[in-house]
């Protein structure tokens, strides 16, 4: 067991190393940090630009291999270098990661809970009204790009606010700029701002989960063990809830964990549109600002979350399903 | 659930004893409405029976005869869209049409059920003990958890699970099939029910385990005094176990009576055919089996007359006019009467309005009286095919060419645990040094229970690779030294027919392509392929128009014929038959067995016949090898193995098989082995049969090849 | 299979009809299903709209109407204009053209690739399996968004959409291939696979003729999902100015783009509606195809 785990973790480390290196090399060779400095007003002298670039280890006149080695030797000790503005990447990364994780944790819990409930019930009522309506809703959500949903919700919220004459729904930023208040008020203000982006993310997740859970549930509905449970005196409802749903939940929970990893990058659009300073938004900004180190750092973080999520989902699966358990 | 209750006047329970029936089913019908544009399926069409305390009723029928559906209807376990009419009375109380909550209170407490497949019957994510305790708790929520738990342990012990305290915490997948079925029986017994319905409780189990479970059911009946409804397709299981038998065909009861009446003086051609189609382990030279032509009708498109008429050898024109009722022998209306009714003459009140079970033998055949008068048997009314003798059987065995020789064959594979964290925990000694040979035109049967290494042996042979240990010689060529092209060429001479005709045919390929595949693979020209495919279709008794159909559109027997046609396409000399008939219904099985015998005689094939069913083996094999835990414990010619088995395992195996003959079966004493088969991953040392857990009354001997 | 040889056989065995032709049968089956017809007609209408629409509208793709910025639909601008005065109708037809091409192509490429990788890994097992699945894991952890964003700007311009198709496909096959692998492992032990092996059918033929057809339901379902996934991915990239038509946009304008006051409902309602119709059409065709390929499906039985 120990050996097995060690081998697996080693494999993850190798994969993450490769992914991060690839991202760094791609960014370092394709982005154009020199242009960022040259554009400045007033235009700095070429020497000043070079000095700046050298200080940040971004100078395209330095061989790429050398830049890579310098950068990587920092990463090994937990230093992801500096942003193009001169900030510390590692420090900023944890801040942004916090924002993103807060957003997606709440959204996944909400979305998956509703999705699982709807999907499971739809399976029980297969081909009836509820099933048809929920399937159609899920289909609609899944075929419309998240960007469009996010914008539509935003425009809708704007319309509602205009109609009511006050800001019922906040659609921009994590909290009101310059907001003054005690901890409690600040928390309320944050929640107020979080409602819409969380909703947008949750809606997309709901659709995926509803469809997935419906399929899983359909698989176990006709199972012999549900019939056995009824034969020993459980009502249909109790047998479905205690035996069918419990069994059908296992693959969904595994899937849930897996999705969570992919969501760090999946939340990008929502973050960007709602003005949240999370990982995804940071990545987009950094591409526009030719910020090589941030691009590499975000790539590292995303690779880590994907690997961690897939590892966790395996462990959860083994833990929840006695058939797979050791 | 839409129900339509027939209000019946007081049920006349005449005939047997004076105690009222515990369960009385009257004129039960179940219809599954077709979705969209499919037609309705009339699964059960008028079943009536009554059963008193302590009585055992057998319901016998082939797949699709409605035997399971009728009992599921009685339990209220059918899906909501099923339309059920008639009446089901439990202690005189009508339970059909009760809502789910009220019905749930009856289920498991008054009437309980044991299902066929113990592998999927238990919820995989709860422990066995918790599921058992749930059965106690659900009917008595006031019981403390500890009490329920104690009762569960007690029940586990009662059904013979060793170390019940520890096994309480086991999950279903950690139990063998036999153990799981014991748990299912414990669950059914948990609340001392008055009726236990057993739906094919031993079908999925090995014979020695089947003997144990039947023994356990007898115990359960003694303990609870419950009435038992035993649903099965196996006429052997019923013979020694039940008091009365109800035979079903196409959703309808076609004959009913005491077990001896049915077995010795059946008055319904279907029952007679069924009994004649069973290969008998107790008869030495049975001759060709009685095949019933054709297949059961579709339940969504039934003919107006007797549903068996199209397959019946003694059908008259009147049989096609109206469906005969289940009536006492001789009470059937005359042919003239049926014609008169059919032609529209107002029918006088016939005896048919008494649908209640009265206990006397009744049969749904207009000629039942005639059959009784003439005392016809299956062989009198069914045409029995002539099967010619194998031409090579005249030649001495030693002089015949060797088709296959296996020597000291070994196949061990690693035993791994866990799916996510896979690791090796031991070695499975699947095949552990076996020897046998097959000569031209002969049939060797390889017999054994699940896990004995039969399938691994086959896979080794068919793979034509160098074995892990030992040698395999096919047509005199050692497989170890074959070149790629020689191996490919050798495949022509050796083909295989699998057990499950559903999974052995690619469901996405039409029959033509399935049979053509070996020919195309071996480079036949398209015109030759077409010619040969139609020739083969004809050879195995299928029709030309079957070529464009897909496997799903065929019955089991027809699918198996397709499988045989595919195996014969390349004109092999050796055919490996991996349980070719065990998945088929009896009446169909007889046809396939006859076909195999006929093909062997006509084409001079050699068969390696792998089976667990010793009755079929006795019928078809020249020689028998009994396998146990990767070794052959006894090999010899069929006659001596069956009459003088020398290894205790062979003796136990033979003894465990129920014979479809009530008197013989009652007189027999079965050797019931204790415990499960030992795992091939951890075989006992020395003689493999010598384990404490699997002792029988016999002293073990260490001879490995005693012919 | 040619039927010419068979005619000779007719002389010998008049009862034997020619070998059945599956493709023809399948085609007839497909065209006999209403869903498929509706789906095909919808797709054709969308294509027609996408390719003929620009000819009907009086506006060019990049053209701006400075008198009419962020205007609601009017006779002048049938679907309104955006904040820079570009005609939404024209932009929608251009976008739809792109979406049709990208969505369908990516779906076909991805599913095909995933099916091949997954089935070979599952069928052969051992080192092949380990190697292929390692590559899949690597593709999973590679920062696909970064790569897409950076590389696609390189290929902006004519033919750039094809590079985007390839890139999108390269980053979407992994999960499907793992599912295909799992199914292959269970299918591999089916008796008809054994039967094929024992008659000497080579592995690649077994995979193509027996294994992949038997998971066509999964593959079709996956391909239909992939259509919308690809379009969604492409939309997201273009939204941030990173897609096919991206021109490097100065950062100053970037901020304004996300301000809500600069959006009207018409700006996304029409394109979204068309996308839903397109995904619906693809699903209908996929459904029909699945039924036509599955001999046991209910709607197939007559």
Task: Please give a quick description of this structure.
Chain A has helices at residues 2-30, 33-38, 46-56, 64-76, 89-124, 129-143, 146-164, 183-221, 224-231, 236-266, 268-273, 279-288, 292-320. Chain A is mainly α. The interface between A and B is large, with 34 and 39 residues.
Question: What would you note in describing this structure?
Answer:
By secondary structure, chain A is an all-alpha fold. Chain A has 13 helices and no strands. Chain A has helices at residues 2-30, 33-38, 46-56, 64-76, 89-124, 129-143, 146-164, 183-221, 224-231, 236-266, 268-273, 279-288, 292-320. In chain A, helix 7 (146-164) crosses helix 8. The mean pLDDT of chain A is 85. Among the domains of chain B are: 21-242, P-loop containing nucleotide triphosphate hydrolases (Rossmann fold, 3-Layer(aba) Sandwich); 256-276 and 293-381, no CATH class. Chain B is built from 23 helices and 23 strands. In chain B, helix 6 runs parallel beside helix 7, helix 16 (511-521) runs parallel beside helix 18 (556-568) and helix 18 (556-568) runs parallel beside helix 19. The radius of gyration of chain B is 27 Å and the shape is globular. In chain B, 53% of the residues are buried. Chain C contains 13 helices and no strands. Chain C is an all-alpha fold. Chain C is 69% helix and 0% strand. Chain C has a single domain, classed as Orthogonal Bundle (MetI-like fold). In chain C, helix 4 packs across helix 11, helix 4 (88-124) runs parallel beside helix 13 (266-293) and helix 5 runs antiparallel to helix 8 (174-188). Classes of the chains: A mainly alpha (326), B alpha/beta (707), C mainly alpha (302). Chain B binds chain C through residues 35-36, 38, 459, 462-463, 487-488, 491, 494-496, 498-500, 503-510, 512-513, 516-518, 521-522, 525-527, 529-531, 533-535, 544, 547-548, 550-553, 563, 566, 570, and chain C through 1-2, 5-6, 8-9, 12-13, 15-20, 22, 25, 190-192, 194-196, 198-201, 205, 210, 213-214, 216, 293-296, 298-299, 301.
